[in-house]
Amino acid sequence: MKKIVLAILVLSLSVFAGQINIAVAANVSYAIDDLIKEFNKTNPDTQVLVTLGSTGKLTAQIKNGAPYNILMGANMKYPQALFDEQIAITKPVIYAQGSLAILSNSKKYFEKGIALTDEASIKKIAIANPKTAPYGKAAVEAMKNGGVLAKVENKFVYAESISQTVTYALTAADLGFIAKSSLYSPKMAMYKKGINWVDVDSKLYTPINQGIVIIKNAQDNQEVRAFYDFILGEKAKAIFTDFGYLVP
């Protein structure tokens, strides 16, 4: 009888132990490790596999059958599209709200704000591709509303994701429009506010609401649901706040 009970227990545990696949917007790359570590404190047998990229490209992959169970997008547009097409089974919910910063590898006169982009000394400006990356779209909107877009558009160096934009801002451009969350990575501690970076005035762009959805292939997957609930919970909110996000 004890062997039977033990076998049933092992079988029941195995139902909940496995892998889940999540597609994650590149701007969350700096926080995702901490999020998974916190999740695994209560779900130690769940392996979370992460694919990072621009939300537009990740969404296209999902539509083409990529086996992701969750999309953590950089905006609400793409998660909403998946829900509208009945590829996602949950309505998009905001898990965090991102913000923009301007970053440079060298000291700049950041008190000029977004007008700095029009300086003659600024030859190249790194931004994420606005066609696929919401932070790139927000950067273009900020420059347009700041009255500099037409004058600086020819300086743009396009990156495929917001994480690649950070690299370009520090190596291939004079400055770049990045996700503020990237500045909270330990690797970025050497870059100081007012010297290497500054916030972009939030009045210049639409708030970057970031949405999460569960994909149809995970409809009955309790581990996926557990991770989804965790991302919307208080412990995850605390981590997002630590990485410079606003949380709902």
Short key terms for the protein model shown above:
single chain, 248 residues, alpha/beta, D-Maltodextrin-Binding Protein, domain 2, 2 domains, 5-stranded mixed β-sheet, disordered N terminus
Description:
By secondary structure, the chain is an alpha/beta fold. The chain folds into 2 domains: 2-97 and 208-242, 3-Layer(aba) Sandwich (D-Maltodextrin-Binding Protein, domain 2), CATH 3.40.190; 99-204, D-Maltodextrin-Binding Protein, domain 2 (3-Layer(aba) Sandwich), CATH 3.40.190.10. The chain contains 9 helices and 10 strands. Strands 2-1-3-10-4 form a 5-stranded mixed beta sheet, sandwiched between helices. It has a 5-stranded mixed beta sheet with strand order 7-6-8-5-9. Helix 2 (32-42) links the parallel strand 1 (18-25) and strand 2 (46-53). Helix 2 (32-42) runs antiparallel to helix 9. It is globular, with a radius of gyration of 20 Å. The N and C termini lie far apart (50 Å). Mean pLDDT is 91; it is low at 1-16.
Strand content: 15-25%
Q: What's the N-to-C terminus distance?
A: 50 Å
How would you write the strand order of the largest sheet?
2-1-3-10-4
Structural class: alpha/beta
User: How many strand segments?
Assistant: 10
**CATH homologous group name of the largest domain:** Periplasmic binding protein-like II
What does the average pLDDT come to? 91
Task: Give a quick precis of the structure.
The chain is α/β, with parallel strands linked by helices and 248 residues long. The protein has helices spanning 2-16, 32-42, 55-63, 77-84, 134-145, 149-152, 162-171, 222-231, 234-242; strands at 18-25, 46-53, 70-72, 93-98, 100-103, 125-128, 156-159, 175-179, 197-199, 208-214. The protein has two domains: 2-97 and 208-242, D-Maltodextrin-Binding Protein, domain 2 (3-Layer(aba) Sandwich); 99-204, D-Maltodextrin-Binding Protein, domain 2, CATH 3.40.190.10.
